[in-house]
Amino acid sequence: MVYYFISEVVQPPITLFMGADKFENEDLIRWGWPEDVWFHVDKYSSAHVYLRLRHGQTIDDIPSTVLEDAAQLVKANSIEGNKTNDVDVVYTMWSNLKKTQGMEVGQVGFHKDKDVRKIRVAKRINAIINRLTKTKRSEEVNFRAEREERDRNEREDKKKLLKEQKKLEKMEEKRCKEEAEIRSYTSLFNSSNMTLNTEMSGYDSDDFM
């Protein structure tokens, strides 16, 4: 089960989502998308909240208002963090999440600590939580199937792009060849390369009389 929340602080709105329990979190850790950004309360147990970047976006493009919504959501879904002021929320790209043997279900580390960002949450803001909660919906999701479909679509898009690039390369090759042939033809018949009859030595019209 996955819970979805709509953050309408920007337009178009952004969807935040989180697993219903540690087992759903484990599936998200394993089958997340490269476009996903992961949020968690630092040093406390909490929900794992994600947002999915749009094509071309980076983690630096996330508006501060959306970061605040995501941070408030993970804080509100942390037993200890929800009762504590001045907590830090860490966030990073899904690809930076590291799962090693021996870790508990839902537990995760990082490949590169330098790629982990941090935002300070002074206190719970009920107005934000209430606004997000009103948009809450739940859905059963097959994370593996969604990821495999995403990867399949990406492969198809790359094939189409490669096919289009090859088509353009052939067209350019044909154009260059045609231009080269035109230049060769023009050069062949250039007046400077032609010999006039009056310039031919040894020719006398009287020779035939």
List the helices and strands and how they pair.
Elements: E1 2-7, E2 14-19, H1 22-31, E3 36-41, E4 49-52, H2 64-76, E5 87-93, E6 97-98, E7 109-110, E8 117-121, H3 126-133, E9 137-139, H4 143-188
Antiparallel strand pairs: 1-2, 1-9, 2-4, 3-4, 3-5, 5-8, 6-7
Helix pairs in contact: 1-4
Essential attributes:
209 residues, alpha+beta, 7-stranded antiparallel beta sheet, two-stranded antiparallel sheet, 4 helices
Describe the fold and architecture.
This protein is of the alpha+beta class. Helix content is 37%, strand content 20%. The protein contains four helices and nine strands. It has helices at 22-31, 64-76, 126-133, 143-188; strands at 2-7, 14-19, 36-41, 49-52, 87-93, 97-98, 109-110, 117-121, 137-139. Strands 8-5-3-4-2-1-9 form a seven-stranded antiparallel beta sheet. A two-stranded antiparallel sheet has the order 6-7. Strand 1 (2-7) and strand 2 (14-19) form a beta hairpin. Helix 1 (22-31) packs parallel to helix 4 (143-188). The mean pLDDT is 90.
Spans of at least 5 consecutive residues whose pLDDT stays below 50 are none
Cα-based radius of gyration, to the nearest Å:
33 Å
Q: Approximately how much helix is present in the residues?
A: 25-40%
* Gross geometry: elongated
What would you call the structural class? Answer: alpha+beta
- How many beta-strand segments? 9
Number of helices: 4
Helix and strand pattern: EEHEEHEEEEHEH
